[in-house]
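I have been asked to look over a protein record a colleague put together. Alongside the sequence sits a line of tokens, each denoting a local backbone shape. Please read both lines and tell me whether the tokens look consistent with the sequence. Take the sequence as given and treat only the tokens as open to question. I have pasted the whole thing underneath without changing anything:
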Amino acid sequence: MKRGGKIIKDDITFALRRYFAKKENVPFAYLFGSYAREKQKESSDIDIAVYLSGTPQDEFFKCKLEFKTELEEIFKKPVDVVIMNSAPPLLNHEIFKDGVLIKNADPSLLSDFRRKNFYFYLDQMYIINTYLKSTKEKIREKLR
């Protein structure tokens, strides 16, 4: 798994594809973060995002812990697992933008989820930008 003492992106994606191929409740999954961007450090954790299908929401945390524990055993380093179904739209947007698609067993579901998330993302960005604009105006007024 390591080359020259360093885990590389290709090794991670290969291992993740093998791991998630067996997970029928995960129709799609991504590697994201520093390993996806190939900007990792020795201390970096491995960031994984999964979409759960056919899993009740009250079992999301259990699945997250299962994936985290099993993947940390495989990689021998910390793994952070994000459940995309319940993640904020801004985080999902970053995952879609910079992530590496590991599994896509249901392209239609992935496409639909990406589209819906994009609309939620735009809504949130409008709110954030409106807030920032208002805050900047208040600061300018106080500086006058």
